[in-house]
Structure formats: C-alpha cells, structure tokens
Write a structure and sequence with these properties.
Length: about 210
C-alpha cells in the first residue's frame, strides 16, 4: 500500500544502492538486470567501497574489471534515464538525459581514478558548505570520512547554525589542505553542481 501511495510522484525517487567490493563486483550486472526487469525502482547505483574497511581485501578490485563493470552499468542507466525523463518533451528530454548520464560517467571516472590514487578532482570539494553528515546520535561532520565536529543538540538542531559554526568553518578551510580526494558520489555530485567548468565541459564531454 505504501508503494502504491507514493508511485507516480516524480519528486520522490526510489533507488537501490549497491556497494562494489571484491566479493560481489562480478554479480552486480546480473543484479542490475534483475532489478530493471522485475522492480519498479527509479535507479540502481553502484558505489565503490570507500574508507578503511576492516577487511582490506574488499577494496582490491582490478582496475580493468572496475572499468568493465562501469561500462556495463551505463547500459542499465540508459533504462532509468528513459524512465525518469519520459514525461519531458524534446529537446528538454534529451538535455536532461545527457546530463544524467554524463554525471554518472563523470562519477565513474573519478571512482576509477581515486580508488587507486589520490588525484585532485577537477573542482573544489564543497563538503561542509553544500552538504553535512548527521550521525545517529546527533553528532555532525562535513563528510562521513572526516572527524566529528559537534552535536546538533548544542545548536538546538538547527542545521544552518551547525553549518556556520566555528568548527565547520575551520573544517572547510582545512579540507583543501588535506587533499582527501575520495570516491564519494554524493560529494562528487554536489561539488560538481557548483562548478561551472565541470557543468559546461566535463559532464557533456563525459557523455
């Protein structure tokens, strides 16, 4: 009943996210095909394992195999792009489809680059400026891969106040110095949206 209630509301998307590891990367295309055929979801996204897992073997995916996986997954994203934007008329549908698939391919490029190295993104990271992480106990941070900065309880659960706190301001200043370039798609996406260079050149070129 809940699924029926919300079906058809375009602003509400139901997505599945799979974590890509050395144990499952060979199975994800088959899973993606099954979900595309047998479910009514709006997208299936695959994120390379990040951070420092307790079992480091989970991160050891051959680079050429990751590239092949991404190439196959882009074919599945075609299916979701058609579904997401079919309500639009041309040329708006074509432009929306281009940016959607271009963003995904851009993400995959950074996943392949930064899972194996620490190369700078083509745009500044906006963690702590456009995004914030809130943990289960109310503590917050700029990014799940960085340290805790405070407690929302101390800011009366006001996210704006936490984002403009002295601790977050120091964090924002430290992020460029830390050069902690990662593979986190949420941060890649939000940072790209605030970079005219990426929006005008990198994403169309990736598509």
């Amino acid at each position: 009943m809940a699924a029926q209630k919300w079906r058809g509301i375009r602003r509400l998307r139901r997505n599945v996210v799979s974590c890509v590891t050395s144990e499952n990367y060979r199975e994800l295309v088959a899973l993606g095909v099954k979900l595309a055929r047998e479910s009514d979801i709006d997208g299936h996204y695959c994120e390379i394992i990040r951070g420092n897992p307790m079992d480091t073997n989970l991160s050891r995916i051959p680079r050429d195999q990751l590239t092949e996986l991404h190439r196959a997954l882009l074919l599945l994203h075609d299916h979701y792009a058609d579904k997401l934007f079919r309500h639009l008329d041309w040329p708006a549908r074509g432009l929306a489809r281009m940016y959607y698939l271009g963003h995904l391919k851009f993400h995959f490029q950074l996943h392949e680059q930064n899972h194996y190295s620490n190369k700078a993104w083509p745009m500044p990271c906006t963690a702590g400026q456009t995004t914030i992480v809130v943990d289960h106990d109310g503590t917050f941070r700029s990014c799940e891969l960085r340290s805790k900065l405070g407690r929302l309880q101390d800011f009366d659960f006001n996210l704006t106040a936490a984002l403009h706190s002295p601790a977050m301001e120091r964090e924002i200043a430290d992020i460029p110095r830390a050069q902690c370039w990662c593979t986190h798609s949420c941060w890649i996406h939000t940072s790209a949206r605030f970079s005219p260079k990426v929006l005008l050149f990198h994403i169309p070129w990736a598509y």
